[in-house]
Write a structure and sequence with these properties.
The protein is an all-alpha fold. It has a domain at 1-44. It is 60% helix and 0% strand. It has helices at 3-24, 29-43, 59-64. The model has no long low-confidence stretch (mean pLDDT 91).
């Protein structure tokens, strides 16, 4: 194999390793949050919600119904 191909594979492996380490250690979490915040600010409001329900469930009730699926 040529040196150029070996260096290319090495760069690819190092880039993948960096991305995996950054993801596991949450090194880029702040940058990711800023990106999503800017994205939603630029996109603007898509629609106004008409029906909103807020349900408060205490810990005792949640433990009594822990086998039932809840949407959070």
């Amino acid at each position: 194999m040529s040196k150029r191909l070996v260096y290319g594979i090495l760069v690819l492996v190092l880039a993948c390793a960096f991305v995996e380490i950054a993801e596991r250690w949450q090194l880029l979490a702040g940058l990711d949050n800023v990106h999503y915040d800017i994205w939603h600010q630029v996109a603007g409001r898509r629609y106004s919600p008409e029906h909103v329900v807020i349900v408060a469930i205490d810990e005792q009730t949640r433990l009594e119904h822990q086998d039932e699926p809840l949407v959070f």
